[in-house]
Write a structure and sequence with these properties.
Length: 111
């Protein structure tokens, strides 16, 4: 199951779009609001969105969020993100994050 798709099916909107609207209401720069709102889109047209989508994927793959603890599958990366980084580099980085997970969680105040 894919959270963003499930959210959209049940609620008619996903968390990325809600967060994008909130950051817009809070007067965040438009580029940030758009990047946040678009980070689960299948077609990415902006490098800010690529960065957020990649960060989201890495954090989830490394088990640094509740997302992967629920057994859900990771949302797919857009072709643009895949073009930016090879799978070998991504796998290596995710493993490094997993190895340092306790330190990262402690620093970020996560459990």
């Amino acid at each position: 199951m894919n959270w963003p798709r499930s959210e959209k099916a049940v609620l008619g909107i996903d968390h990325a779009k809600v967060a994008g609207e909130l950051t817009n209401l809070w007067n965040f720069p438009e580029t940030i609001s758009v990047a946040i709102a678009s980070h689960h889109d299948e077609v990415v047209v902006d490098l800010d969105v690529v960065a957020i989508q990649l960060g989201d994927y890495i954090a989830n793959a490394a088990g640094l969020s509740d997302f992967t603890r629920t057994g859900d599958t990771l949302p797919p990366l857009s072709d643009q993100v895949i073009d930016c980084i090879s799978g070998r580099i991504l796998d290596s980085f995710v493993q490094e994050l997993k190895d340092q997970g306790d330190d990262i969680r402690g620093f970020a105040g996560l459990f």
